[in-house]
Design goal:
The protein is an alpha+beta fold. 14% of the residues lie in helices and 26% in strands. It has an eight-stranded antiparallel beta barrel with strand order 1-2-3-4-7-9-10-11. A three-stranded mixed beta sheet has the order 13-12-14. It starts with a helix and ends with a strand. The relative contact order is 0.07.
Length: 558
């Protein structure tokens, strides 16, 4: 019978070798009978040899289910104990070989790993301890790295389960002279209701022990088993003869076990042969590979394993959604093209917006992306005359004669003068030659300024304007102690460049008319066009625009 049990167990082992988380072990030690023929106290003197083997399925680092087989001998002689009364009983002794098949549940109290906690101080199970995407803390609240997570050196365990015990009982009684008298000679004295001693008994198995973890695969253990059969015939003596003392036996076993299943090195529940990352624990959906940032892309395929990202960028994030991963994007929070390394260039001037001081206006690199329309080295947003080349001292406005007075405020833009004299040169008149322009003459000059007309978009004087120019010439010839400055002005219709050119051409036309028709000496006259820069009225109305279209004649003392 014992051979058949061993054979069945061997078949079960061979069938399960390919399964995962299985453990195979051997044990050996002593078995000790407790029952009718011994004192209730445990006596090591009754110990007999016991041995066995087992196959255990470990569901995790704490729970397991074991199928085991144990065999050995049990025996006792009641003459060895004070309870023997020679006047009442004949001495009894028995010997039995037993075979036991059991299924038991094992609970590893501490687990395989040292105790670790989450950030809130809650203890974590072993199944979470070896997952590197879960932060662990020790009891002092310090963060524990993967290489610091330690396996326990030992852990106690308890177990319980049903068992079937097979017996090969031989009980005999001896007379006081030591001669054997077999039990069958006095069967009624020892058995109840003439029942035969059973050959097997269902039992309950329970106990505890301690495991020592030698390596990841090898364990050494010491355990104490108690086997309580559901019969009082373990020793062949019936309950009727001794109703106060039930039969049971115990075993103290030293065990050695090893993992026999295909390895799951990282303990993530996936066998190494199916695990793409057998050294690093990870979830099943990632084929056993870790995913520290939880973005669904395993760390070994993730270029940014600590930051959640998208699959199209191999696990790296793209905050601005411009198709360029943040770790390669010079402007990760601003969408931009690949040629600018992910940075925007709103005005298309080749200077990225974070380095462009004029984001919405195309400019030049030397001016940090700002324009300099007139090319005077002063950027437009700091140039008071952005379309006319000027000098830094006058914020980009021109000073043709270089006297420090801007042309727009210089009454003599082509002659160096003083600021006190509005840009004209200081001339001291000779005694007795200073003249004052008559009021009527000044009114004629003011009328001429507003009424001299030209043909449309040209510098050709109209016929009506020529008669006015004749009056101006007559006045200028009478004030020959003065020089004459002719100034042309326009309204703001048209471009600045066009208006500037038009005003200058019309001022020159007046200069030529006075020289050729009114015989005014050209050495006394200068002309300048100011375009739309010196309005005398608002350009928002037609009346204002008309006042701004003018040619002024200014007398300057020689």
């Amino acid at each position: 019978m014992r051979f058949h049990i061993v054979l069945c167990l061997a078949i079960l082992i061979s069938v399960q070798l390919s399964a995962q988380n299985w453990e195979l072990g051997l044990n050996g030690g002593i078995a000790n009978y407790q029952g009718d023929l011994v004192e209730p106290a445990y006596d090591i003197g009754n110990a007999e040899l016991a041995y066995g083997l087992f196959l255990q399925r470990n569901f995790n680092h704490q729970w397991g289910l074991r199928l085991g087989f144990n065999a050995g001998n049990l025996g006792a002689d009641d003459r060895d104990y004070d309870r023997f009364d020679a006047d009442m009983d004949l001495p009894l002794d028995f010997q039995t070989a037993f075979s036991q098949l059991h299924i038991r549940a094992d609970y590893n109290i501490f687990g395989k790993y040292n105790k670790y906690f989450d950030k809130e101080g809650n203890a974590l199970p072993d199944s979470m301890i070896m997952q590197d995407n879960i932060p662990l803390y020790d009891k002092e609240g310090e963060l524990v790295g993967m290489d610091e997570r330690k396996t326990r050196s030992w852990s106690p365990y308890v177990f319980a389960g049903p068992a079937l015990t097979l017996l090969n009982d031989r009980m005999q009684q001896q007379d006081l002279n030591g001669f054997d008298a077999y039990r069958m000679d006095n069967e009624e004295a020892w058995m109840e209701d003439n029942n035969e001693v059973p050959g097997s008994a269902f039992s309950m198995l329970f106990g505890g022990g301690v495991n020592f973890f030698l390596t990841d695969d090898l364990k050494l253990g010491l355990e104490y088993n108690v086997v309580a059969p559901f019969t009082d015939y373990l020793d062949g003596v019936s309950e009727l003869r001794n109703p106060d003392n039930g039969d049971f036996y115990s075993m103290i076993l030293l065990k050695l076990s090893t993992s026999i299943s295909p390895k799951d090195t990282d303990g993530d529940g996936l066998l190494d042969k199916d695990d793409r990352c057998p050294e690093d624990p990870g979830p099943l959906e990632n084929k056993g590979c870790p995913d520290r940032d939880g973005d669904g892309i395993s760390d070994r395929a993730d270029k940014c394993p600590d930051t959640p990202g998208i699959r199209s960028l191999r696990g790296c994030p793209d905050t601005d959604e411009d198709g360029i991963a943040d770790n390669e994007d010079d402007c990760p929070s601003l969408a931009g093209p690949e040629e600018n390394n992910g940075c925007p260039d709103a005005d298309g001037d080749g200077i990225i917006d974070p380095e462009d001081n004029c984001v919405n206006t195309p400019g030049l690199p030397e001016y940090a992306g700002c324009p300099d329309t007139d090319g005077d080295g002063i950027i437009d947003n700091r140039d008071d005359c952005p379309r006319v080349k000027g000098v830094p001292a006058l914020n980009g406005c021109p000073d043709t004669d270089g006297d420090g007075v801007g042309d727009s405020e210089d009454d003599c833009p082509n002659e160096a003068g003083t600021a006190a004299n509005n840009g004209c040169p200081e001339v001291k008149p000779q005694s007795g030659q200073e003249a004052v322009i008559e009021e009527d003459d000044q009114e004629t000059l003011d009328f001429a300024a507003q009424n001299i007309q030209f043909e449309l978009n040209s510098a050709n004087l109209t016929e009506e304007s020529k008669s006015i120019m004749d009056q101006v010439g007559e006045i200028l010839n009478r004030y020959d102690q003065y020089n004459i400055r002719i100034e042309g002005h326009t309204d703001n219709r048209g471009s600045e460049e066009y208006n500037l050119e038009l005003s200058n051409t019309r001022a020159k036309a007046c200069w030529e008319y006075l020289k050729n028709k009114a015989n005014v000496s050209p050495t006394r006259m200068t002309y300048t066009g100011y375009g739309e820069t010196n309005p005398v009225a608002s350009n928002d109305t037609e009346a204002g625009q008309k006042l701004n279209r003018r040619v002024e004649f200014k007398l300057i003392q020689k």
